[in-house]
Amino acid sequence: MIxxxxxxxxxxxxxxxxxxxxxxxxxxxxxxxxxxxYEHAFLVLPDERLLEAEPGGARVKxxxxxxxxxxxxxxxxxxxxxxxxxxxxxxxxxxxxxxxxLDFLAIATHRVHLPVPGLRRYVASTKHMICSxxxxxxxxxxxxxxxxxxxxxxxxxxxxxxxxxxGSGEQAREGACDAAAQNTEPGEARRAA
Length: 193
Prior knowledge:
Strand order of the largest sheet: 1-6-2-3-4-5
Helix content: 25-40%
Number of strands: 6
Mean pLDDT: 76
Distance between the termini: 19 Å
Number of helices: 8
Radius of gyration: 16 Å
Strand content: 5-15%
């Protein structure tokens, strides 16, 4: 479900411009996600912060860095406050984890069924992750499994997150994931969290 006001535990999906964005769009296309408009994912944390994977390693930053950006905030339907808390708590384990553009290639290699020894272990490794893998891993650590399609652990792109959580309802952009988001004015949930 999509909503405009970020709540801790939400997934933020946004675009990346320039060459990096184009390379990620191509990587997502290789992985069967088409040319989705979202090339980056991050996890919303309490106190107006976020966790995101980036080339220098995963970092906690201010959510205000995305003020004015085209960001879709989404979460699985029915996500409870306890689950949101567990997802945010899990995020602390991944600060500093290295970024790996090679994960896009590894995911694509799996998609085209190339028999590469150790590929599943490489994709599932939490020692290096792209942004969407990082978000998905925080959810998995909180025992919230976003994907029910028996995919390999770590086999997720920003485009896959968008398709799963937000792609079925652009018209729901102003909708809400839960009561906390439904009953607040824009910006109020951030201050209350």
